[in-house]
Amino acid sequence: MQYYKKIPITKDQIVPTAERMRKDGVILAMIHGYLTEDGKPNISYEYMLGDTIESYTIEGENELPSIAPIYSKAAEWPEREINELIGVTFTGLDVSKRLFLPESMLSGQGQIFVTPMEELIKNTQKH
User: Fold this and answer.
1) What does the DSSP 8-state code read for residue 106?
2) Sheet strand arrangement including 27-35
3) What is the value of pTM for the model shown?
4) For residues 114-124, b (16+ Cβ closer than 10 Å) or e, as one string?
5) Residues 22-53 pLDDT 10s
């Protein structure tokens, strides 16, 4: 059985928490991010502690410190993805190239374009 524990933290606690976890040999399972219904970013840092996932969560911050210097690629990739998809800036993170979105896309951060299926079908039938 696996357990889940959600722990709210502040922006200033992100790096010290990551440093403590790394020092203790704790695995960073993932960093998740989404926008709440009112458009605020919600970021959670998921750490594996035995049979428990500890989720350190912060809401409403558009700029956070990067933990990539502490957890390397395990943190860099999800931080870059969150930056690209929802526009949260991670201080110290190199985002000079995009992960998923094409370089030719309009400038700006956090652009996700969703086209309704009906419109896609209509546009393909014109060609």
Assistant:
1) P
2) 3-8, 52-59, 41-49, 27-35
3) 0.77
4) eeeeeeeeeee
5) 999 999 999 999 999 898 999 999 999 999 99
Residue 16 CA to residue 5 CA, distance in Å, equals 19
Instruction: Say if CB 93 and CB 67 are below 8 A apart.
Output: no
Tokens read off for 79? 């931080």
Q: Domain 3-126 - what CATH class? A: alpha beta
For the chain, give every domain's residue range.
3-126
- The tens digit of pLDDT for each residue in 52-109 reads 999 999 999 999 999 999 999 999 999 999 998 888 999 998 877 766 655 555 544 4
* Residue 102 structure tokens: 């094409």
Q: Which of 127, 2, 106, 125 is nearest to 54 (CA)?
A: 2
Distance between CA atoms of residues 22 and 6, nearest Å: 19
Among the listed residues 110, 61, 112, 72, the one whose alpha carbon sits nearest the alpha carbon of residue 94 = 72
CB 36 within 8 A of CB 42: yes
